[in-house]
Design goal:
With 87 residues, this protein is α+β, with helices and mostly antiparallel strands. The protein has one domain. 20% of the residues lie in helices and 38% in strands. It is built from 1 helix and 7 strands, in the order E-E-E-E-E-E-E-H. Strands 2-3-4-7-6 form a 5-stranded antiparallel beta sheet, covered by helices on one side. A two-stranded antiparallel sheet has the order 1-5. Strand 6 and strand 7 form a beta hairpin.
């Protein structure tokens, strides 16, 4: 079974929930000629069927961002949780 165009299987490493908004940190294979393999995603329905979009989309209560560097992705995961707590 193949993934729909523009998606890849998400391997969730950490998951939290802040004010009812799920926040994920994980890995995946970004097939769009990009070395990015770490992602931070947040919002209800952002990981439908265990799949994540392979492009960046950043909104207040929904989004997914890809990173090449694991430490940068972990920092965004931490910062995002703090930002959501402030709202």
């Amino acid at each position: 079974m193949s993934n729909p165009c523009g998606t890849t299987r998400a391997n969730i490493l950490e998951k939290t929930e802040v004010r009812g908004i799920p926040v994920y940190f994980g890995t995946g294979v970004n097939p769009v000629n990009s070395p990015a393999q770490f992602f931070v995603a947040w919002g209800k329905g952002v990981l439908e069927g265990g799949l994540i979009r392979t492009f960046n989309n950043e909104q207040l209560d929904y989004g997914f961002l890809w990173f090449i560097d694991e430490e940068e992705a972990e920092a965004k995961y931490s910062d995002l949780q703090k930002d959501l707590m402030k709202e």
